[in-house]
Amino acid sequence: MAISYKDLGLVNTKQMFADAIKGGYAIPAFNFNNMEQLQAIIGACSETNSPVILQVSSGARKYANQTLLRYMAQGAVEYAKEITDGKGIPIALHLDHGDTFELCKDCVDSGFSSVMIDGSHHPFEKNMELTKQVVEYAHAHGVTVEGELGVLAGVEDDVVSDVTHYTKPEEVEEFVAYTGVDSLAISIGTSHGANKFTPDQCTLDENGVLVPPPLRFDILEEIEQKLPGFPIVLHGASSVPMDLIKIINQYGGEMKDAIGIPEEWLRRAAKSAVCKINIDSDGRIAMTAAVRKVFAEEPAEFDPRKYLGPAREALKNLYMEKTKNVLGSAGKAG
Ligand code: G3H
Ligand code: 13P
Ligand code: ZN
Predict the structure, then answer these.
(1) Residue nearest atom 1 of ligand 1, based on CA coordinates
(2) Which of 30, 201, 206, 223 keeps 20 to 30 A from 94, CA to CA?
(3) What is the distance between the alpha carbons of residues 37 and 12, in angstroms, rounded to a whole number?
(4) Containing H/E element for 73?
């Protein structure tokens, strides 16, 4: 039997995005695969009073079991209430990088409040048809839909692209009008993972810090002009904090040439029509740094709570910083 997100206490992204565009901030979209990540996300967003989009990839569905993840998201609504004296925060449950109609339908039918249909690897026409098909089904159930135009370099689940294909502004109006999508992910130079740029693509600033090639804010601005007030989504928005990479490498890790998107650029994006910013890799990095430190300093430790606990704490602190100082969503939960 189909389950509606409305019965689970979740919300779709419609109001969240309308408020974010008006308020000049972005909603955090954080991925989760396990209990500690979920606790950290809900803890961080509850304590900073931020709305949140919980993202589940198809890899997460395979790893953790889709039914269990949905029950966890339902539990997260109650957990948020418990730690906010009954008030709660707006929580959307979103499929990240859905690649087929069947997967999106399954998520709609099992309580997701939002889905992404990522047809960006298909030719334009096929992307439009697939996206429209998902929108028709999802909207009939009150579920919001994110589409994508342009291809990010890097890995998107099982799909790998070596190069960035920037979003073509001349395509966005037709895509949005034809498909009826609620938001559009665009490609302006971000990419997935911890190695977004190679050092030789970067320049050195006066402090010896590597600065990546600039994001194509000109493309974003052109899209904003063509779609005034329409919600834009930025994937691949991890900043890859160097202090955390150093801790990982100091305690036996081998993360080489890790380079992310400077937070300053994300602050700028959050103030524009970008109203959803996807962050996953930074969270993985924060957890890995904390776990490696415990393993190195307390090699006799074998209680998972003793290393997953610090990892959860590190993730929560990182995400609190994001909502307060990068996305600007802190204090916007209503
Ligand atoms: O865009 C990708 C997200 O970081 C999810 O990654 O497919 O490894 O779960 P995943
Ligand atoms: P990062 O790999 O930069 O964290 O991007 C995550 C993402 O876009 C999930 O869809
Ligand atoms: Zn993504």
Answers:
(1) 156
(2) 223
(3) 21
(4) helix 66-82
pTM for the full predicted model: 0.97
Residue nearest to atom 9 of ligand 2 (CA): 278
What is the amino acid identity at position 244?
L
Q: Check residue 297 and give its pLDDT.
A: 98
Residue 210 has pLDDT above 70, yes or no: yes
* Nearest in space to 196 (alpha carbons), one of 208, 179, 213, 181: 213
Confidence (pLDDT) at 164: 82
Q: Does the CB atom of residue 236 touch ligand 2 within 6 A? A: yes
Which residues are part of the catalytic machinery?
96
Tokens of 123: 């030719």
Q: How far is the CA of 298 from the centre of ligand 2 (A)?
A: 31
Average pLDDT on 264-289 reads 98
Q: What's the gap in Å between 276 CA and the centre of ligand 1?
A: 16
- Taking 70 as the threshold, does the pLDDT of residue 156 lie above it? no
Burial 287-314 (b: 16+ CB within 10 A, else e): bbbbbbbbeeeeeeeeeeeebbebbbbb
CA 212 to each of CA 161, 165, 215: distance values in angstroms, whole numbers, following the listed order: 19, 17, 9
